[in-house]
Amino acid sequence: MKKKFRFQWGAFLMFCVYGGLFFLLFSRFLYIQVTGEAEGQPLRAMAQAKYEREQVLSADRGKIVDRSGNPIAEDTVSYKLIAVLSEKASKDVKDDEWLHVVDREKTARALAEHIDMPEEEILDRLNRQDDPDVYQVEFGPAGRDLSHDKMKKIEALDLPGIQFVKDKKRFYPNGPFASHLIGFAQKMEQEDGSVKTIGQMGLEKTYDELLSGKDGKMAYESDTWGYLLPGAEKQVTPPEDGANIRLTLDKTIQNFVEDSMKQVEEEYSPERMSVIVADPKTGEILAMSQRPTFDPETREGLSSNWLNEAVQYTIEPGSTMKIFTLAAAIEEGVWKPDDYFKSGSYSIYDTTIYDHNKNGWGWISFREGFQRSSNVSMANLLERMGGEAMMQHFRNFGFGQKTGIDLPGEAAGSLNDVGPVERLTTSYGQGSTVTPIQMVQAATAIANGGKMMQPYMIQEIKDPNTGKVLREGQPEEKAEPISEDTAETVLELMESTITSENGTGKIFKLNDYSVAGKTATAQIPNGKGGYLRGPNNLLYGFIGMAPADDPQLIVYVNVHRPKIPAGEWGSVPVAKIFKPVMENSLKHLNIRPDEEQAADAAYQLPEFTGQTAESASAELGENGIRAVATGTGGEVIAQFPEKGTPVLPDSVVLLRTEGEPVIPDFTGWPKRTILAYASMTGTTLELSGEGYAVSQSVSPGSPGDPSTPVVIQLETPEQEVITSGQEEVPEEEQLPLD
């Protein structure tokens, strides 16, 4: 029998369904093959996004170095702390080798002892472990920039899940070192979540764009697990490191400044201080610092004052301004050093100004007036040359206008040229304001034969990627406000303030170099139209140049409101900065000491040992040298100074002889020679004060008694000072205490 065909609706429907699905799938494949897109997205790009990895190659922030290339600020290796929270990290590992945080409380407690974050906050971050989408966490600024030492200490805790990632941090190897000048940079989180080192103040902020550089990247194709695919090529875009900045600063001289300022800060607790060291021949700034200061590494000590006071803070300078009043008078032809004037006071209209001792010194010469820092002498010079002429000379010196130094935020100061009284007070440094850098710039004209040099601090900015110099500092003569003859005359008069019997700057005398300088003791405005009162409310300053015959360095120091002990002078803390800074800096620069320059003309001490004291004394006397025998006479056993030492006239040479020591007349002896006498004879001496001997408790010629100490009073020469016992002058008299 022929079998009857029976149509299978079920099979037909299945064929249609699966056939339709196959057709759709085939069409989809065909579409993707032709267009390379799926759901409007390019498949090639999607594949690259899935399998391509990109690693950021961080650029080094540019270095800031001193003139010799010693680092002041640079990038260094640091570590970032992370905590792995996901249990997936510990899949297929042994139970005692967990790679994720297991004990949250223990981990938080241990980390809190090593990073600057409270235990509760650390625990709060670790508790994000309960969120399945969180694989690991970081600890913000507290967990970044960790040193190698701190990383090792945390690593030694052996905390499961705690790991470290190598990072970079800004490193300041010198601690508090020109901190307000250099500033600091720190890591800041950006809007996209990335972290970038950004300058926050000082040079780090001003030149942030140049210092920052540009990050590079390394791109490569990987498998699902992130491993490099076989045959895949890496595409590297190298980073471009930031530009390096070489300063004119000399690290050694800067350290001299920092060390001396630290000592004075600890001893006198001043409100503020600033120091600048400059090369007057070029205008280069070799050192610049201030107090209070801070450590840019930790920011410890950073207060609300972010100003670099050498260029951004104005002061009434006091008597250092008299240097430029004197120069103006010489230029105007009215300086007659041997003319006389009546010191003490000077009146104009209803205003009377006084000398710093109020009563003056009677009729004195203008030369002596400058040496004594007489305000009245400046008033008489102003009267001779006229106010407009003086103020124009001050403008020629650059006062009242920015120097143009290559540092940010410079202040201009102001010359108070309102009327005769204001010009009068300006002549001796009160009423008008200047910046320390303006004082240094103007002083270069005195030290440099009338040529005023532009101060600068950036020696070179260089691109390390190409070797191209982007910017280079060069000595630049800014103006010639005075003649060479005037500069020479002013320099000689400034030296006389150190060497003259009447000079106010004797305390600033150096052992090995001659100094030309000018002291200042200035009142400080109280912000209410008057001035602060009392010896602890003054600004003490000094600007000095050495060697005096051809200055190689200028050092400007000002100390605000130091706490001066009763009986001590305000210039003492200033000298404790100036003297070691200037002397050590000159020796560091291999500037030949004056004694060496005069060695050929000086008397070279022979060997007196074995000779009689009488013959040795006679030979020394013929050369103008004072011989002091320490005993009763006879044969010379030892001498001070030693054989071969060059000795100038009026010096003291000690000759140790036979017999018991005899107490000499110590008057005028320097401390060094007195100590040599004590060491040579075994005499017990007690020294009080500093400087030169002015009195002694035992009469000259008395036999030395080891059981009875000889008390010797030392004093430094007369200074322009205000002591705690000085009579105060009513404020309305506008007395500049100088």
From TrEMBL:
- Source species, domain of life: Bacteria
Q: Which residues form the signal peptide?
A: none
Q: Where is the composition biased (Acidic residues)?
A: 728-738
- GO cellular component terms attached to this protein's record: plasma membrane
Gene Ontology biological process terms in this record: cell wall organization
Keywords in alphabetical order, please. Membrane, Transmembrane, Transmembrane helix
Protein name per UniProt: Penicillin-binding protein 2X
Q: Where in the cell is it found?
A: Membrane
PANTHER family in alphabetical order? PENICILLIN-BINDING PROTEIN 2B, PEPTIDOGLYCAN D,D-TRANSPEPTIDASE
User: What family does this belong to?
Assistant: Belongs to the transpeptidase family.
For region Disordered, the annotated ranges are 719-738
